[in-house]
């Protein structure tokens, strides 16, 4: 009986070892190619992903690309992971690629995304998209967007005859450029309409209001949105361990606001912000790393904690 018990214990250990090894991915999965469009929320969450993958022994990197380029790259197999599909705001970009991109999960709920104005502009009577044309001269017929390629919904609103915005211009620059213009305009109490969203520290840095009337483009409830993780077609099957991390990886508004604060207010790089946010809230690792191993099949949670000094 003693020999049977020893054999049984050894057999269990052997099969557990095999199970762990089987969870590791093939060499072709070691490199994890990610991208984001230069938005601070996605720079932060992608930084989390890159940090975790690298701590697990993968070779992850992120590139800043326009949305159209991101989807074309996923379609062509030049990218693996995109953590930033805002639904419904990005439907226009995503629609042509539905059959060549796989949805993994919703990684954030409670987001919103639509036109916004400073509170003094809202109090002056600009409370809906249809109010913009009445104050066209005060706005100098300009609305402020972010990176080129990310402002199609603004352009679509201008083209909609219901809003009488013919002749208006979308000023495209970057998230930082838009917020700098917002800071300058609000200092002098000038009129400005811009692309606003949450999560983002702008919601506490500036006193502004979201406009109604954009349901056709941004969806109801001020562009209420979810953010989802997407991958190139077949990635989850090819790289199941890397895919398991993506299935686990979820965020919330407060966590992202704090993380973006590290980027915007403290000037941290995305990987630095990711490490700071994880160290401030390490219990999140338990859920993120459930059933996830290192690249070579060892316990993932232990490896990440050791790498991050937790």
Automatic annotation (TrEMBL):
<dbReference type="InterPro" id="IPR007210">
    <property type="entry name" value="ABC_Gly_betaine_transp_sub-bd"/>
</dbReference>
<dbReference type="InterPro" id="IPR017783">
    <property type="entry name" value="ABC_choline_sub-bd"/>
</dbReference>
<keyword id="KW-0732">Signal</keyword>
<dbReference type="Pfam" id="PF04069">
    <property type="entry name" value="OpuAC"/>
</dbReference>
<feature type="domain" description="ABC-type glycine betaine transport system substrate-binding">
    <location>
        <begin position="31"/>
        <end position="279"/>
    </location>
</feature>
<protein>
    <submittedName>
        <fullName>Choline ABC transporter substrate-binding protein</fullName>
    </submittedName>
</protein>
<feature type="signal peptide">
    <location>
        <begin position="1"/>
        <end position="24"/>
    </location>
</feature>
